[in-house]
C-alpha cells in the first residue's frame, strides 16, 4: 500500500540567475510500514524532499500523490505528522499540553487527546514531565516530546527532519528509539532525514540525496 508517491518531482526556489534547484527529478514512494532514512550532505535537498512528502511544499514540476489520504490538505494533516528540525514546543504550555497540541489543532477533542498524550509521553519515557513547562526541558527531552506529539496524532506517516541533528550521539539514539516506538505503536510509516550514518543504519531503507537528486535507494536484504 503506497502512502505517498513522488513522480519526477522538482522544486526550484527563486528565479533566473538566483534559481536554486533544491529537488531535481525525484521519483520515489513510501509504502505502509516503511522505515526510511534520507541521507545526504547539508544543502542536498533532504528537508525540501521531506516537505514535499508532507505536502507542505508544492512541486515546481512533477507530482506528489497520497493515494490513501484525504485529497485536501486539512484531511491529510491528520494522517501525516511532521517532526520539524529544531524544537517546535510552545514555551508557555506544559509538556502534556504541547504533546496534545497537534491532535487538538486537527480536531480531536481535548478530552480524547489528553489521555492519548499521556500514553505517548510514557512511550517516550517522559511521564514524569507532563506538568512541567516546555522550556525547562533539555534538547533531547524536547525532541522526544515532539515525537510524542506526533504519536498522539495517530498518524499513518511520520516525517522527521534531522530529529537528532543538534543532539549528542547517545541522546540522538534515544530520540530515534522514541521515533521507532511511535511508528511501531501507531502502525505509521517513518521517514527520517539525517546526515548521521549510525541513525541511518537503524532504518530498513536508505535514500541518498546529492545536489537535489535522489541517487540510490538501498534496502536491507536487497542488493
Ligand atoms: P538539506 O535539508 O539537505 O540541508 P535543503 O532542502 O534545506 O537541504 O536545501 C536544498 C537547497 O535548497 C539549498 O541550496 C538551500 O539553500 C535551498 N533552499 C531550501 N529552502 C529554500 C527556500 N525556502 N528559499 C530558497 N532556497 C532554499
Ligand atoms: Mg535540512
What does this structure look like?
This protein is an alpha/beta fold. The protein has a domain at about 35-45 and about 70-220: Rossmann fold. It contains 7 helices and 9 strands. The protein has helices spanning about 45-55, 75-80, 95-105, 110-125, 140-150, 170-185, 195-200, and strands at about 1-15, 20-30, 35-40, 60-65, 80-85, 155-160, 190-195, 205-210, 215-220. The chain has a 6-stranded mixed β-sheet with strand order 5-6-7-3-8-9, sandwiched between helices. Strands 2-1-4 form a 3-stranded antiparallel β-sheet, with helices on one face. Helix 4 (about 110-125) packs across helix 5 and helix 5 runs parallel beside helix 6 (about 170-185). Bound molecules: adenosine-5'-diphosphate and magnesium ion (MG). Adenosine-5'-diphosphate (ADP) binds near residues 14, 22 and 42.
Estimated helix fraction: 25-40%
Q: How does CATH name the architecture of the domain at 37-44 and 72-219?
A: 3-Layer(aba) Sandwich
Strand order of the largest sheet: 5-6-7-3-8-9
**Cα separation of the termini:** 22 Å
Portion in strands: 25-35%
Fill in the keyword field for this structure.
223 residues; alpha/beta; Rossmann fold; three-stranded antiparallel β-sheet; 35% helix; binds magnesium ion
Secondary structure: elements and pairs:
Elements: E1 2-13, E2 20-31, E3 35-39, H1 46-54, E4 61-65, H2 73-79, E5 80-83, H3 95-105, H4 110-123, H5 139-152, E6 157-161, H6 169-186, E7 189-193, H7 197-201, E8 205-210, E9 213-219
Parallel strand pairs: 3-7, 3-8, 5-6, 6-7
Antiparallel strand pairs: 1-2, 1-4, 8-9
Amino acid at each position: 500500500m503506497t502512502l505517498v508517491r513522488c513522480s519526477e518531482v522538482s522544486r526550484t526556489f527563486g528565479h533566473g540567475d538566483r534559481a536554486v534547484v533544491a529537488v531535481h527529478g525525484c521519483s520515489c514512494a513510501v509504502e505502509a510500514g516503511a522505515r526510511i532514512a534520507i541521507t545526504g550532505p547539508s544543502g542536498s535537498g533532504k528537508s525540501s524532499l521531506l516537505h514535499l512528502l508532507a505536502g507542505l511544499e508544492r512541486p515546481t514540476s512533477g507530482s506528489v500523490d497520497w493515494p490513501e489520504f484525504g485529497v485536501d490538505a486539512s484531511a491529510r494533516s491528520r494522517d501525516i505528522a511532521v517532526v520539524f528540525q529544531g524544537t517546535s514546543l510552545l514555551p508557555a504550555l506544559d509538556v502534556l499540553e504541547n504533546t496534545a497540541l497537534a491532535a487538538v489543532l486537527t480536531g480531536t477533542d481535548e478530552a480524547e487527546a489528553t489521555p492519548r498524550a499521556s500514553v505517548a509521553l510514557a512511550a517516550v519515557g517522559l511521564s514524569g514531565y507532563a506538568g512541567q513547562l516546555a522550556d525547562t526541558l533539555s534538547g533531547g527531552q524536547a525532541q522526544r516530546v515532539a515525537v510524542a506529539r506526533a504519536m498522539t496524532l495517530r498518524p499513518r506517516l511520520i516525517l522527521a527532519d534531522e530529529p537528532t541533528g543538534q543532539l549528542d550521539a547517545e541522546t540522538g539514539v534515544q530520540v530515534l528509539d522514541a521515533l521507532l516506538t511511535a511508528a511501531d505503536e501507531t502502525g505509521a510509516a517513518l521517514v527520517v532525514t539525517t546526515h548521521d550514518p549510525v541513525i541511518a543504519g537503524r532504518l530498513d531503507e536508505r535514500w541518498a540525496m546529492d545536489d537535489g537528486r535522489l541517487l540510490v535507494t538501498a534496502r536491507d536484504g536487497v542488493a
